[in-house]
Specification:
By secondary structure, the protein is an alpha+beta fold. It is built from seven helices and 15 strands. The strands form five sheets. Strands 1, 2, 3, 8 and 9 form a five-stranded antiparallel beta sheet that branches. A four-stranded antiparallel beta sheet has the order 13-10-15-14. Helix 1 (21-36) runs antiparallel to helix 2 (38-50) and helix 1 (21-36) crosses helix 7. The chain is globular and about 65 Å long.
Length: 306
């Protein structure tokens, strides 16, 4: 049985970068490079080119997971008025981005089958994080101003790591580097000015262990490889365009910007027997050694949509 770790992080400062699987993975790579050297990083990435030995989810408000995509099934037996009501409920549900972990699990088990069971007053007023646009002095010679988004919240976040090969996970000191990234070095942009620092706890998470089903719910932004694209024919999914950029010292390159990438987003429901989907991608032709993490962590579900 594959072990899943839940990583709980509580901000000690504001932070500039959303909690995303691909960004966490990128910072793990930098930690390996800085602590153990280029050859060890190449070895680490060589495993992921073939098959990942762990999978990472995006980060969500602690106690919540992404709401699976909702559809209104056609039913000729209901009246026009009843169908109109269902459509109205679906519009309300569409605004909900996150649901309680227990509701998510019950959807996977097929114990929640209608939108009515999901729309509760708590979800109508729920928000996951406050965002504030603030102005800071720039450090260039023009002494201009720029506007940047900062995340301010007292809420805890959590993300999940599924360990496929524990020996390799331990060999590459992944748990140590996760602590280092969030507690010591800082996560994402702005660490040099005190942004992106968190307290962190790591615990075992067993709620996914007994889940089964022909469908899988996605917990991280990812892409499909060429052989997987036919999976979308019987899936419910949404996409998002990502404009990536190199981090750390590589952000000072002449062209630090990556090719735009269309990713499937968390909450998408994929029909597959596979344990995970996706691949590693090179998005900068001039730097073939730079790879983007685009694997998707999947949770089994009996339910295609509700």
């Amino acid at each position: 049985m594959k072990k899943i770790k839940k990583i709980i992080i509580k901000p000690k400062s504001s932070f500039l970068t959303p909690i995303r699987a691909d960004i966490i993975f990128g910072q793990i790579c930098w930690s390996i490079l800085c602590n153990e050297g280029e050859e060890q990083l190449k070895l680490f990435l060589s495993y992921f080119k073939n098959a990942p030995f762990f999978l990472i989810s995006d980060g969500f408000t602690d106690g919540y997971l992404p709401k699976p995509l909702i559809t209104v099934e056609k039913n000729r037996e209901i009246t026009k008025k009843e169908r109109s009501k269902k459509i109205d409920e679906a519009k309300k549900a569409k605004k909900i981005k996150l649901i309680k972990v227990e509701d998510f699990i019950n959807i996977c088990k097929g114990e929640i089958n209608t939108i009515d069971e999901l729309i509760v007053p708590e979800y109508k007023s729920f928000f996951s994080v406050e965002k504030e646009s603030i102005r800071n002095n720039t450090k260039n010679k023009d002494d201009g101003l720029f506007s940047q988004k900062e995340f301010w919240t007292n809420k805890k976040y959590s993300f999940y790591i599924k360990i496929i090969n524990k020996d390799l996970f331990d060999k590459f000191l992944i748990e140590k580097y996760i602590h280092q990234i969030f507690e010591i070095l800082g996560y994402g942009a702005g660490t040099s000015i005190g942004k992106g620092f968190f307290d962190i706890e790591i615990e075992d998470f067993k709620y996914f262990d007994d889940l089964k089903g022909d469908y899988k719910i996605l917990l991280s932004h990812c892409v499909l490889n060429k052989e997987e694209r036919n999976l979308l024919l019987d899936s419910r999914y949404k996409i998002e365009l990502k404009y990536g950029k190199l981090g750390n010292i590589k952000s000072l390159s002449l062209n630090p910007f990556k090719k735009p990438l269309i990713q499937i987003i968390p909450g998408s429901i994929i029909k597959t027997e596979k344990e995970y989907i996706g691949e590693m991608l090179n998005l900068i032709e001039s730097q073939k050694e730079v790879l983007d993490y685009n694997y998707g962590l999947l949770v089994p579900s009996l339910t295609k949509s509700i």
